[in-house]
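Hello,

Our lab assistant flagged a job as stuck in the queue for most of the afternoon. It eventually completed. Since we weren't sure the result was trustworthy after the delay, we are filing this so someone can double-check. Below is the sequence as submitted and the structure that was eventually returned. Let us know if re-running is recommended.
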Amino acid sequence: MSKTISIFDTTLRDGEQSAGVNLNAKEKLAIARQLVKLNVDVIEAGFPISSSSDFEAVKLISQEIKEVSIAALARANEKDIDRAWQALRFGQNPRIHTFIATSDIHMKYKLKLSPEKVLENAVMAVKHAVKYTSNVEFSAEDASRSDPDFLVKIFSEVIKAGATTINIPDTVGYATPEEFKKFVRYIINRVRDIGEVTVSVHCHNDLGLAVANSIAAVEAGATQIECTVNGLGERAGNAALEEIVMALKTRNDYYNTHTNIETRQIYRTSQLVSSLTGFSVQPNKAIVGKNAFAHESGIHQHGVLNEKTTYEIMSPESIGLPMNRIVLGKHSGRHAFRDRLEKLGYQLTQEEINKLFIKFKGIADKKRTIYDEDIEALMDIGGDNLNKYLTLERFQVSCGNASAPTSAVKLNFKGHSLQEVCIGNGPVDASFKAIEKALGISLTLEDYKIRSITEGKDALAEVIVHISRESKIFIGRAVAIDVIEASIRAYIEAINRMIAGLGDNFIPIQYNEEVI
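-- returned structure --
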């Protein structure tokens, strides 16, 4: 009989720890709702003690999401665990996920604690957590570089204390598949009462082996995999959910396992996470990359046309990606548009469809052909979830090889018009400077990315900007046919994210002046 592997999604916790990612509570909730559609078993919503915003996000998700278990991370101390429970207590079957490092290098240099004290703290943490919930997970940080006999001892004791899931992380991505398989099997064979709990693994991708290590652990007997959408995470990221799920599904004949994931929601989930985090999916990314089901070689094309399985070991439909690319244009009606959205895997309300249809028509008047990728880009989930403190009224740029690039930008801040004109190194730089001058702020542009959504001279441009102020990173994304417009709108979206953190405390320098 096929064994069920639980999927523990940590996109909102470990994935959000990726450098440059800063999701607000509404965006986290939007991803959590999509993860419910994906049918993950557990959503790790955040690390409540780390910040007030993380606490509020976990609290919001635990209040709103009732279909799956919501988990929160806590170090092995009472303060962290209490804070985690305060955020989780509204949820159905909430999970406290507590951890402590167990490798010699971490215990000596980071914790500065003896193995005996680490064991004591671990047991104390689990006993404290079970006062709140019977759903308690314990992780031995840096387990793959820990003494396996010490792990056997600590896991045996935390199970005795009430832990219902034990997690064996490859925290720094050091393990190799065969080695990790033997390591996990050794622990499973020696820990007391191991059959009474879920055995989990959490692998990082520093050597590009996170997915391989996770699946090797399943072969050794692990029954839960911790992973993230698109492989997001610190440093080189985590094991990618979509790769794990489709590997187990496609090679069920070999692994004899399955997950509860609704695979037709994979592509939609990947696109949403990419949009909200500002981390584009590389074209050759397994499963969800733009080229994952593309065939350019004549030999490959000939084979696929005759029989799909010659070069496709899974179908694009199985991840929610339509095989055909239906072209829409300015004459397409609302019905055809709604039908295309449904085939792309979007489940929207009529109000949401109406709003998106207006965007679609606006682009269709300027662009001859609209592809699926254009529609996905227009979704702009991140921007739609933001409070629009600042909006663009109009802009005008002037540049050439014999004149200084100049931009005049008119903005609206809570009903009050602001405008400025600036010279820059180019029209984009001049526009960004004009926005900053109008607001009376100074920002640092940490990153600026631009890409064409589809082919052709009239292709939509997607711009993603990362700005920083006082060491905090804010991401903005926008789509338009005009590159300058997309850049300005992305910059404004990033500023709206920044203002959201300041609320009514932010007042533009021109705010008290007469309306322009």
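-- support follow-up --
The delay was a queue issue, not a problem with the job. The result is valid. The mean pLDDT is 89. The longest helix spans residues 483-502.
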